[in-house]
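Field guide to reading this record: the first block holds the primary sequence, the second block holds the structure written as discrete tokens, and the final block holds curator observations. Each block starts with its own label. This record concerns Dipeptidyl-peptidase-4, catalogued under organism Streptosporangium brasiliense.

BLOCK 1 — SEQUENCE
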Amino acid sequence: MSESFPRLQARTRRFTLGVPRGFTIAPGGDRVVFLRTKSGSDPVTCLWEFDVAGGKERLIADPRALAVDEEDLPPEERARRERSREQAGGIVGYSTDTAVTTAAFALSGGLYVVDLKTKHMRRLKTSGPVIDPRVSPTGEHVGYVTGGAFHVQDLEDEIDHVLARPESPEVTYGLAEFIAAEELNRMRGYWWSPSGDAVLTERADESPVARWHIADPANPARPATEQRYPAAGTANTRVELYILSLDGSRTPVPFEDEYLVTASWDAHGLTIVTLSRDQRTMRLLKVDPATGRSTTVREDTDPAWLDVVPGVPGHLSDGTLVWAASSDGGHRLIIGDEPVTPATLQLREVVDIDGDAVLFRASGEPTEVALWAYKDGRITLVSPAESGVYSGHTAGGTLVVTGQTLGDEGSATRVFHHGKPRGHIASYAERHGLDLRVSLIRAGGRDLSTAVLFPAGHVPGSARLPVLMDPYGGPHAQRVLAASGAYLTSQWFADQGFAVIVADGRGTPGRGPEFERAVLHDLATPPLEDQVDALQGAAERFPDDLDLSRVGIRGWSFGGFLAALAVLRRPDVFHAAVAGAPVTDWRLYDTCYTERYLGLPEEGHYESSSLFADAEKLDRPLLLIHGLADDNVVAAHTLRLSSALLAAGRPHNVLPLSGVTHMTPQEVVAENLLLLQVDFLRKALA
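BLOCK 2 — STRUCTURE
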């Protein structure tokens, strides 16, 4: 290779550039609108259209042709991209009307509308930088947020109407608050009525939330950024809902629970989903748009917590409810009141509802995510039989299937119309050039999903290699998948002379509610026990290839917490650790995530999952890495642990990253972080 893997991975945003995404299928199934950059190293995303009958693509909108400075983003948009882990630039999101004839998008704060048939594009005049523009279902208006105010613009006469203005600097209309975007998978704060004459709009008041300050010590002349951060046990943003009519009237939609999970406004009515603060009660409410009053359609409870499943609620053509719930040991698809999937098939997501057909993702084997369809009381596998990770969309008889397997380099996107192939939507992603040497096994006493990777030139049994555990290991995130893209960084570490082990322990998805809920009130013990269990199970499987006297562990975010935890509590097993952006004290992390697993701080479950009490135990090399601009896991986590280690007289290394957020998007930083970690681990495990 002419370019090192760390540089290539950094330049290609972890090989995500050039991959088609953001699909919208026209109701007739004749066209597919999507997003993609022009190459695997081009960070500027364009808007495209695929003609299903002809199997050809055409470019709809190219930001470079509009001569727009991509870096000129309003702060709210930067925050939204951080929450969504968006790594590219350009047109990173868009909306269309129901007929998919008009699209709107924001570009560097400007509002653009394009006719998808003629490609005629307009930039509309706005009173400020635009956030989250959404075309009304009828295509007559576009809604957007600027300066915390919610606006609607008529697309014919381009007259702008302000439907709601913030009453104070702490109030916004039409934007998802921090917790919704970071933890509830809700990136939007308003929903159009089907007729386009009213909008259900969130009013978010951050005034009850504590003020934190994110400073950049490397640039002392810059003022610290003030942020409202809802730490565990403290106040959340106050969220209210209003129906704003285009005639200027406002109807409140009251609800009692702490969290607004999502909303849906379709031909069968307006519904909202709410969740209690302890996340043990979820309510589906039907709202009367005329009065704002709601009635309970369904109430689910769980003694541990309830999961938020993307894509629900929805309705079949006759109004039958499409829902998701856990029963009989499985996450299941619910049609009406009845589960229609077996408990052994773990529902991941409902991706589309087209008439009486429901397209959904689910796992039978934990490492695989298949695409299934429900219709007329039956479920059918619609993704290929080959094990992999698949997703898709459907409308008007057209099916778009995206997927990746262990044997393929990169993902593939196939288009079908009434079951017949209509071609591929090309991926321009760069080739990684690695020789993947990954074995998927079940390891340890709990049959944990585990991936074991060896260097490309390693001959089995020829040498015992130092071991690198490479987990995330936390709730609601999975690392061990039957997809090649999941192991690129791990394979590169293996090629530096390590046997790399990636293991999903208790708390991770894919194996059902009981497996996930084993971390209730203890985020430390089960995840750490399972990393040890997986390591020992892999050593039994490869006894002549793993040197258990030289075991390192690395991770980021929850994985960073787990890495630091490993050398503090199990130095007999782990001999060095790299902890990136670790959560070290769960009181410093946000309400929704932390309280879901540990409850409120006064309930007494936080100390056992904190790292501070173990600081004096450190006698292994530990490298702490943290971005000083991280507004998700703030740098205070690492700095406080470092202070505790210093007070205990325990040597350790700290690498602060000036101006770097939780995503570490900068190319030079992303590249050198890999090189520095390898250097540290080689020396520590020599």
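BLOCK 3 — OBSERVATIONS
The radius of gyration is 25 Å.
Residues 667-684 form the longest helix (18 residues).
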